[in-house]
Automatic annotation (TrEMBL), chains A, B:
Gene name of this polypeptide: mtaD
Identification of the protein by name: 5-methylthioadenosine/S-adenosylhomocysteine deaminase
Presence of keyword Transport: no
UniProt cross-references to PANTHER family, sorted A to Z: AMIDOHYDROLASE-RELATED DOMAIN-CONTAINING PROTEIN, AMINOHYDROLASE SSNA-RELATED
Organism of provenance: Archaeoglobus fulgidus
Keyword set includes Hydrolase: yes
């Protein structure tokens, strides 16, 4: 039992100063002054829902700031892929631990990940006490034999990570790396195993034009024909879509992960059609993408980029109001993964962040939500509670030695870089 | 004398681990292990130049998150102007103190300000130990009588703030609020008094089109004809410029303050022509603008917005590399105001920030500059030294009681809002 006293709660109807009681991982009561074994003094703090980061490649923290300001194919071919070729489970484990530390300390309680060595990711997430959905990613490069082999491996991986306290997804990478047959099979497996699907959709114009040239139809229409679209699907990026495709995504209950920082840094050439998605009812969520193309995993920053990119690109300052992007970064992300979280409400999961209101950038308090979206940076994150357990307290990670994680991840990153520079 | 030991210094040629000695406000020696009365252990810290924020309306922190996501004229007319009409010197003083606290704690050592009640601003800045250039702003609304009166007041104000430890500028607001005659007179006063000029230039398309319609020429050409352009001029925004105008700015030694977050939030419709400015040799600097249109004064965040906006808008990921935007935010800002600062070099002013490298987002250390630009948030600012004096230590402001500033500014902001809501 945890009782938070004297704090300002960000409720759906506004900010109220009330006590909040957590028991068995849930918010059991608001406004009650119950006894509790743990009492947190919430004076000069706000209680807000934690963030749901719906598209990451967490272990790419190892490549943070390793290569920037480059043209996409040079960046991938000369810098990222050669290093990724040297990854092993230990490297991914430490890269993911660093990512979990960074995410928790910036108020993120959940991440939806796709990367190599899923079991290492699942172990890192479970140890750090963060919620996660871990993907068994695969490519088939349009080779039926490779498809069979990689699907078999993916299923094996999914079974291997079942024992961890994480959600699971199958991760057919994208339409330019996986055949339509591979996508269809992935959707069938997701249905059979009752898991999610993690997929990159319409990130660049080239992907869309190439697909249309080859198949004579829009990507989302083709995906619908093979039964790929459902409430299980988290479609990352989803930038280059026609209105008819957006309508279809909404109709099938697909969730979208918008990654504005990555979109800007990698120059995808367009801003996501948020207004159309909102109008049609697409479940709109926010992701940071990997640290190699961002270069952090900070959802507070990502919300600001999302809102400002919409306003600027569509020349409309009223687009994506602070309340809307905050909802996308919290409750909409939770909803995508069937988690009853993301609101400060009785009966909701206790995935909660205490924000320090004595940071200058959090003053004055005209609007807590606008301060969070447009002004806050991660330094205001004081305490983070995931599933009712305190994992960050007074800005410190309490489960493990932070310095050990930084040192191990730093050493792994240096070694990867060193081995590459020797071999090139 | 302050000796910083064991830290990683961000030198122009790269990162080196050396000691650094500060005496009489200057970096007197690098690499010497001298005795000193104050020794700072720089282990796991980086020593970087502090930021120069070249366009602010600092006291607008009072209106942070008071009104967002609105159309410009409604925002100004219904929300900002009615509150500004109720400002007094005390309100501006506390708003500026809050701004100085926020800026110092996020690594900013200088701000170039334009707002009401300049003497209150100067006093707040001096007390906080931050460098500043304070403007005596004026409008004439194309009324010659008003011009005479406001110029007289501006000169009076400039004399009144001479006693403070700040730089001074005259601030003719913009071409849509000040006549060409007013601008010419401002330039003459700047010359006579040997001070700077702070001015809004070509922020919106409408400003540019209206001017051209009325005068039949480009704004910068008209400004050149009246002798307005010189090394004294800091031209904020400078978005809607023709190439010929950029060339003229470069030729006359004008500095530009780029405010990307404000430009995006207020939907100015275009990204500044950075590449052309770089090519022509314009002194390119970075500003946050006021907190009402940002909503913070965080130069770490501003650098990321600047670099990503360039890349995205011009579809070129190689535009505005991390090193370039870092230079714009530091040494180029210092240069604009004739301050020999912004580099970790012997003989330079000791305006220095110690950055905590044990924050997860600062690891691994492939590139310190890219980590600062693309990954860092203000939580990593550990110690700030301005003119050789420690003003922030271990994340705490040492000159005054932080809580008193927050409380006073918060109370002033509430009162302004309350009085407005009563009267409307």
């Amino acid at each position: 039992m945890i009782l938070i006293k004297n704090a300002k709660l960000l409720r759906p109807e506004g900010v109220v100063e009330e006590s909040l009681l957590i028991e068995d991982g849930k918010i059991v009561s608001i406004g009650e002054k119950d006894k509790s074994d743990v009492v947190i003094d919430g004076s000069k703090k706000a209680v807000i829902p934690g963030f749901f980061n719906t598209h990451t490649h967490a272990a790419m923290t190892l490549f943070r700031s390793y290569a920037d300001d480059m043209v996409l194919h040079e960046w991938l071919e000369r810098k990222i892929w050669p290093l990724e070729a040297k990854l092993d489970a230990d490297a991914v484990y430490w890269g993911t631990k660093l990512a979990c530390l960074e995410m928790l300390k910036s108020g993120t309680v959940f991440f939806n990940d796709m990367y190599f060595f899923p079991e290492a990711i699942a172990r890192a997430a479970e140890e750090c006490g963060i919620r996660a959905c871990i993907s068994a990613a695969f490519f088939d490069f349009f080779n039926p034999d490779l498809l069979e082999e990689n699907l078999k491996n993916a299923v094996k991986t999914l079974k291997a990570i079942e024992k961890y306290d994480v959600l699971r997804s199958i991760g057919p990478h994208a339409v330019y790396t996986v055949s339509l047959d591979g996508l269809r099979r992935a959707a069938e497996i997701a249905e059979e195993m009752d898991i999610f699907i993690h997929f990159h959709l319409a990130e660049t114009e080239r992907e869309v034009l190439d697909f249309r040239k080859q198949h004579g139809k829009l990507i989302v229409q083709a995906l619908d024909e093979i039964g790929f679209l459902s409430g299980r699907l988290m479609a990352a990026h989803s930038v280059w879509l026609e209105d008819a495709e957006i309508e279809l995504l909404a109709k099938r209950g697909v969730s979208v992960s918008h990654c504005p920082t990555s979109n800007m840094k990698l120059c995808v050439g367009k801003a996501i059609k948020y207004e159309k998605m909102r109008e049609k009812g697409v479940n709109f969520t926010i992701g940071t993408d990997g640290a190699a193309s961002n270069n952090n995993l900070d959802m507070l920053e990502e919300m600001k980029f999302a809102a400002l990119l919409q306003k600027f690109y569509y020349s409309n300052p009223t687009l994506m109001r602070a309340e809307e992007v905050f909802e996308a970064a919290t409750v909409s992300g939770a909803r995508a993964f069937g988690i009853n979280s993301g609101l400060i409400e009785e009966g909701y999961e206790a995935d909660i962040v205490l924000v320090d209101l004595t940071k200058p950038f959090m003053q004055p308090e005209h609007s807590l939500v606008a301060n969070l979206v447009y002004s806050a940076s991660s330094g205001c994150v004081d305490t983070v509670i995931v599933k009712g357990e305190i994992v960050v307290e007074n800005g410190k990670f309490v489960r493990e030695d932070e310095h050990k994680i930084l040192e191990k991840a730093g050493r792994v990153a240096e070694k990867l870089k060193g081995s590459e520079e020797q071999s090139s």
